[in-house]
């Protein structure tokens, strides 16, 4: 009798873990979920911009001083570069904003004006009218300062957020709040609240924890993302997502997933994307470990994507990537 009980106990010790493993596999395998169809969406980082080498790159590196020899005439975060990006096939364009002295938002990437422009200091020290007088192409060089191919060509090209939204009334935009100042969240929420519900639905905002939290409290219908919102969604999902449970924090948000982390998410890729679709959450895949806005910028880069991937692809070279998916034929 005791021997029989021991045998049953041993069987349970074997079969229960095996059953759990089988359940986890079946519940998270992309082969056993609804097959996704269609092409990925393309996000053009800063529109169509001049790219640069990333060797030894630091947070305070002046990237305008290390660009590759120009292959096109466009400068990042300008209306011409965004317009061209959409024409080439971008589904979403990302842009950076900073506050100005007169209560507006300037569309500009860097923390200071010193690197790219002939100005000094920060945007909040200037009115939008004064910023328009700067040459945003002043500091670009591909040969260590011997020549400056865009000097004199960027005067008047720094747009305000208002100009961008008026120029692209129906397109999808991803707005980057560069600081962690909660007052910028208040200011941006106040401005975006004046837009129509349709226009708000085509916008998403990401940035520092404090401004994003403030903005979300005042405009909960706008899709947002910060390190805090990412952690609130992904940490519990990684812990128990194998059961199929999706945390409420994953609802109507945005996730920027580095390609090195993505395969460790339960159900990646198809089942994970389906689960996020159910929660109205947008998944954007970024290259490498996600540092310094790495993108899928070459044909070779796209070969690392999962087969039939239909989420969003982050790219710094929409001109190279869109033709792969024939996106440029849709315009």
From TrEMBL:
Alphabetic keyword roster: Membrane, Transmembrane, Transmembrane helix
Domain GP-PDE: 40-325
Domain of life: Bacteria
Pfam families hit by this protein: GDPD
Entries under InterPro entries matching the protein: GP_PDE_dom, PLC-like_Pdiesterase_TIM-brl
Membrane-spanning residues: 14-32
A molecular function (GO) term: phosphoric diester hydrolase activity
GO BP, sorted A to Z: lipid metabolic process
Descriptive protein name: Glycerophosphodiester phosphodiesterase
Source organism of the structure: Thermoflavimicrobium daqui
């Amino acid at each position: 009798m005791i021997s029989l009980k021991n045998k049953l106990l041993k069987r349970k010790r074997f079969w229960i873990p095996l059953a759990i493993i089988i359940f986890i596999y079946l519940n998270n395998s992309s082969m056993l979920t609804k097959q996704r169809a269609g092409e990925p969406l393309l996000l053009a980082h800063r529109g169509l911009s001049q790219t640069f080498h990333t060797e030894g790159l630091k947070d305070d590196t002046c990237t305008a001083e290390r660009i590759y020899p120009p292959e096109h005439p466009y400068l990042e975060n300008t209306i011409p570069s965004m317009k061209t990006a959409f024409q080439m096939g971008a589904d979403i364009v990302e842009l950076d904003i900073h506050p100005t002295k007169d209560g507006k938002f300037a569309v500009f990437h860097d923390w200071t004006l010193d690197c790219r422009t002939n100005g000094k200091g920060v945007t909040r020290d200037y009115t939008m009218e004064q910023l328009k007088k700067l040459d945003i192409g002043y500091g670009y060089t591909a040969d260590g300062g011997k020549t400056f191919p865009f000097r004199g060509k960027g005067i008047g090209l720094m747009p305000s957020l208002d100009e961008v939204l008026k120029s692209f009334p129906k397109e999808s935009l991803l707005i980057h709040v560069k600081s962690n100042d909660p007052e910028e969240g208040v200011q941006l929420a106040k401005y975006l609240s004046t837009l129509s519900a349709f226009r708000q639905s085509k916008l998403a905002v990401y940035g520092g924890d404090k401004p994003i939290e403030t903005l979300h409290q005042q405009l909960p219908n706008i899709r947002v993302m910060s390190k805090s919102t990412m952690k609130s969604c992904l940490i519990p999902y990684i812990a128990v997502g194998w059961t199929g449970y999706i945390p409420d924090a994953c609802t109507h948000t945005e996730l920027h997933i580095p390609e090195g982390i993505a395969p460790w998410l339960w159900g990646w890729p198809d089942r994970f994307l389906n689960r996020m679709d159910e929660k109205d959450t947008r998944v954007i895949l970024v290259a490498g470990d996600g540092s310094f806005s790495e993108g899928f910028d070459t044909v070779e880069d796209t070969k690392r994507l999962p087969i039939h991937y239909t989420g969003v692809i982050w790219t710094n070279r929409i001109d190279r990537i869109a033709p792969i998916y024939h996106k440029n034929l849709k315009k």
